[in-house]
Design goal:
The structure is a homodimer.
Chain A (H helix, E strand, L loop, with lengths): L1 E6 L12 E6 L8 E10 L3 H5 L20 E9 L9 E4 L6 E4 L5 E3 L15 H13 L7 E5 L6 H10 L3 E6 L2 H10 L4 E4 L5 H8 L4 E6 L3 H8 L2 E9 L20 H4 L3 E4 L9 H13 L7 E5 L4 H10 L5 E5 L4
Parallel strand pairs in A: 8-9, 8-11, 9-10, 11-12, 12-13, 14-15
Antiparallel strand pairs in A: 1-2, 3-4, 3-6, 3-15, 4-5, 5-7
Protein name (chains A, B): NADP-dependent oxidoreductase
Pfam family, one (chains A, B): ADH_zinc_N
Organism (chains A, B): Asprobacillus argus
Amino acid sequence: MNKQLIFKKRPIGFPDEQTWNLETTEIPILKEGEVLIQHHYISLDPAMRGWMNDNKSYIPPVGIDEVMRAGSIGKVVKVNNHPHYKVGDCLTGWGGVQQYVATDGTGWHKVDDTIAPMPLFISTLGMPGMTAYFGILEVGKLKEGDIVLVSGAAGAVGSVVGQIAKIKGCTVIGIAGGKEKCDYLVNELGFDAAIDYKSEDIYTALKEKCPKGIDVYFDNVGGEILNAALTKLRMHARIVICGAISQYNNKVKVQGPSNYLSLLVKRASMQGMVVMDYAKDYGKAAQEMGMWIAQGKLKSKEAIFEGIENFYETYGRLFSGDKKGKLILKVLED
Amino acid sequence: MNKQLIFKKRPIGFPDEQTWNLETTEIPILKEGEVLIQHHYISLDPAMRGWMNDNKSYIPPVGIDEVMRAGSIGKVVKVNNHPHYKVGDCLTGWGGVQQYVATDGTGWHKVDDTIAPMPLFISTLGMPGMTAYFGILEVGKLKEGDIVLVSGAAGAVGSVVGQIAKIKGCTVIGIAGGKEKCDYLVNELGFDAAIDYKSEDIYTALKEKCPKGIDVYFDNVGGEILNAALTKLRMHARIVICGAISQYNNKVKVQGPSNYLSLLVKRASMQGMVVMDYAKDYGKAAQEMGMWIAQGKLKSKEAIFEGIENFYETYGRLFSGDKKGKLILKVLED
């Protein structure tokens, strides 16, 4: 049987128990040219919250009564005459929150799970890693010597952004929630400084820890942290708008950055990004990041929780911040 | 004697009668290497409001008891051994709101007032024209076929932005206040459409007049118009932040654009500019714009009011919108 998380009701604010329903259905019967993938891991990402809204966005919203959209990784367990894939192949794609998925392979790609553990392919070698890589290097136009500020710095994207900036010879300040995460950034990931937004006043902390201002701000959170970062821009600074997790569960309007006129004063720019635009270069990026990982220059951290039954509770950790690194749900049952 | 407008008190909100004082002093005595310029025209610009605030910005604020800062144009009436300038030369620079100014020439440059009337050199061939030229071409990265939206479209900068975009083969929609200005944009300046923000709902009007969205938004006003423009961005759109006249007299916080996450959805950018950065290329731009004017492709409109005594009332027109084109004060007395 196949356990599937079905999207039942568009949430207002934070999703509640009515948002999804866990249902058990038959494992799909393969058509000619299809493979059956058994999911091992599901990727949980803040972007999921956006996909639930009935808005025009960079992809259509998840439909009511559809399987909840999610990135995933698993192994081929059955094949009906597929031209490329065979039983045992490890594939990653948009499989959704369910245990099994049938596909003709469109949008999936094969990875070699003998060179790295599976979770890594939906973490630093997957979407979050790609987002960090192209976001900071291409959109952020990172240069050696830049002073880089990153929010959500202990998360899947932010932690990689900061480490790439260190590899490239920059000064890096991370913003995260809680002492443990801040210590982790400085002591384990090599950030130059960290700001605990839960216990520090962000304006005072920026003054202390970025006394010379910032060249690049990589924003995962929006809200007052974005607004504060705008007051510290250096000339020709770049702000990368990757997300706005502080605003995703708003029941009221998104908070606009009232300090945006700093863009004028500092001839700075604020640019949005969506990782899918860089798909053709994922291979090159994964190769470079894989090398950094092998050399010990880039650490990938996954927070893995178990059981598709625990989806709701685990999803909540994205927004409570109660996890470190990439949030992953293991759905393979022993 | 020299009539000077002295800055007396930093305003909160819109300047009042205590903000400035008109004083009469001796005409300055020239030092060795100086010239005396008799002002003919003073440039009145929305940016003046920003210069009155005691904030860090792209230039220092005007000091209390100093002559109010302003661009100006006039003629040399006296010389004390100046290496380049002679009596009768026409010079433009930052002379301030006063009738006479003594200078060694730093920051001034000579123009040929036999080829164009003096006001044009502080209008389309001066700062506002340069702002429009570099703003739309360099910061806005204008391409043939782009759909361009410009606010403050009947103003000194906006009217030139729109006309340059037409010259470059774009579709241009202007936003201005009142039917007369909107008719002027379409009938006299060749804009494709105009939106009267005073009588139309901006969201509805944008839906009607920019049905395909916009590639470039040139923003002079900020506030709800910027926020509305953000909802109409096409992929890879560019927003040029040139000013925010709707917010300059705020007594409360600037309104941040709550729709800024459209930048992410549309992979768009928002970039600030200050015209002084392009100073080394002013000559080239003035030459090209002068050619367009001569060919009848670019119209320059000046709204000229008379008398330094009427500064306060005339300055108010910048914000009430009660003028068309570049606002200029004639301070030469007959």
